[in-house]
């Protein structure tokens, strides 16, 4: 449970009665309340004793520590989660998806996985979705073979790397080959932790610990923290669905509900080790997306298995309080020109993608006007007064569409046919055409409309 402002104020100078205003706030009480909500940093008060500062910093730290893996533009952050259930508020940092290559796999399979990791990406509600990480596993027993694979991986991809080797010496050798990439190292166990601590103190990396149970994980994180290492990810070792759900839930609950700091780190899940069946593996990955994993390691990725997982991840990690929306703009579909029809829709992302994909399917070049409507669908936006004739007419005029087309014909969604009259008043020079009520009617409707204009 996060510390409250009323508890913080008691720890401030003179029991919270100094009120010198040097922090920029009128009173110590105001500072304490703002500090509790994350609106100000501790160092704004110059009078805090070092031990009070350390105590408050610990109490104010996020229950699940944010951990960054990799460097540069492809680095990702996991953790920093605040809630057990996505409907309470929002999940913050989506889990990274990794694909694993092993040094005992055929070269062609490794190349295939690497090229899919680099090339498979999908545009979905305006976002580019793709896997994030390459896991490089030592499984042949031949160190030179593993090192060759590590070298190949480093050269082939610029995404973050997860080095996987049960042999701690092999793991640290791999680390030294790509230390500048700030890789993640797995598994770090009680047996190898001293060596890893020594290496990571020199060359920082994310330490992915593994234990046989959640209790033992806590002992390992305490040891790392004592040594100043906090970029930690945890594997409770569960390798079946039931125990994985149990352990992931236990870890999240302990960190959020019991403020148990030793378990306040992101976790990793290994669907790749839980089943031989690729579809079952995807189901396991779906479970880890919902149940708290920060990194999910897959044995393979293919378009038909990766897309559902990416779409699910996007849905779970979007803020349920904020509708997914598109920017208000003119969107060309199928390379339109000055004679192409103009359609208008609202800026709810799903509405946009349904309409634009149906226009695309019609093969008719067209201009799609997307009007800001609070991220709502057509009828809801109309009911809220955000997709009415009064608001659409000024948008059409300022959008710039009049400079792009040599006609004045605007197709409005059939669901809001009733705004035609208002629009005819607001846009007297435009012919307002009531289009289909459902997007799936567009491919049949648009070619006929254009044909009728050309007759
Ligand atoms: S600077 Fe510190 S002592 Fe002064 S008002 Fe702010 S919190 Fe209180």
Structural description of this entry:
By secondary structure, the protein is of the alpha/beta class. The protein folds into three domains: 56 residues, Electron transport complex subunit B, putative Fe-S cluster (3-methyladenine DNA Glycosylase II, Chain A, domain 3); 250 residues, Alpha-Beta Barrel (TIM Barrel), CATH 3.20.20.20; 126 residues, Rossmann fold (3-Layer(aba) Sandwich). 41% of the residues lie in helices and 17% in strands. It contains 17 helices and 17 strands. Strands 10-9-8-7-6-3-12-11 form an eight-stranded parallel sheet. A five-stranded mixed sheet has the order 13-15-14-16-17, sandwiched between helices. It has a two-stranded antiparallel sheet with strand order 1-2. α7 links the parallel β7 and β8. α1 packs across α3 and α6 runs parallel beside α7. The longest helix has 16 residues. The site of iron/sulfur cluster has 13 residues, from α3.
């Amino acid at each position: 449970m996060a510390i409250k402002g009323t508890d913080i104020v008691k720890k401030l100078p003179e029991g919270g009665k100094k009120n010198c205003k040097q922090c920029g706030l009128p009173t110590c009480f105001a500072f304490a309340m703002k500090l509790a909500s994350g609106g100000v940093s501790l160092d704004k008060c110059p009078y805090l004793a070092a031990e009070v500062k350390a105590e408050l910093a610990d109490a104010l730290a996020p229950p699940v520590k944010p951990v960054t893996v990799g460097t540069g533009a492809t680095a990702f952050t996991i953790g920093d989660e605040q809630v057990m259930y996505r409907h309470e508020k929002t999940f913050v940092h989506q889990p990274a998806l990794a694909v694993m290559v092993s040094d005992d796999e055929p070269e062609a399979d490794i190349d295939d996985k690497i090229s899919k990791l680099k090339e498979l990406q999908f545009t979905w509600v305006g976002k580019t979705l793709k896997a994030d990480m390459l896991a490089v596993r030592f499984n042949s027993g031949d160190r030179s073979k593993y090192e060759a694979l590590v070298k190949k991986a480093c050269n082939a991809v610029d995404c973050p790397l997860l080095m996987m080797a049960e042999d701690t010496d092999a793991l640290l050798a791999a680390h030294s080959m790509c230390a500048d990439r700030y890789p993640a190292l797995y598994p770090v166990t009680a047996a190898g932790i001293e060596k890893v601590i020594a290496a990571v103190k020199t060359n920082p990396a994310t330490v992915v610990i593994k234990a046989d149970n959640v209790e033992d994980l806590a002992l390992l994180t305490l040891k790392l923290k004592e040594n100043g290492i906090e970029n930690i990810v945890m594997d409770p070792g569960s390798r079946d669905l039931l125990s994985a759900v149990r352990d992931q839930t236990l870890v999240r609950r302990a960190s959020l509900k019991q403020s148990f700091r030793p378990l306040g780190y992101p976790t990793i899940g290994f669907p790749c080790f839980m089943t031989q069946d690729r579809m079952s593996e995807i189901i396991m990955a779906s479970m880890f997306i919902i149940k708290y994993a920060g990194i999910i390691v897959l044995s393979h990725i293919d378009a038909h298995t990766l897309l559902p997982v990416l779409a699910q991840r996007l849905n779970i990690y979007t803020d349920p309080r904020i509708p997914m929306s598109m920017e208000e703009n003119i969107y060309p579909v199928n390379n339109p020109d000055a004679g192409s029809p103009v359609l208008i829709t609202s800026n709810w992302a799903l509405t946009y993608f349904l309409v634009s994909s149906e226009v695309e399917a019609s093969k008719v070049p067209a201009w799609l006007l997307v009007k800001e409507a609070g991220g709502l669908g057509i009828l809801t936006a109309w009911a809220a007064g955000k997709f009415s004739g009064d608001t659409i007419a000024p948008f059409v005029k300022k959008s710039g569409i009049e400079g792009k087309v040599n006609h004045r014909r605007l197709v409005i969604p059939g669901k809001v046919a009733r705004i035609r009259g208002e629009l005819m008043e607001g846009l007297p020079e435009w012919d307002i055409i009531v289009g289909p009520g459902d997007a799936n009617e567009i491919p049949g409707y648009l070619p006929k409309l254009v044909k009728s204009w050309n007759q």
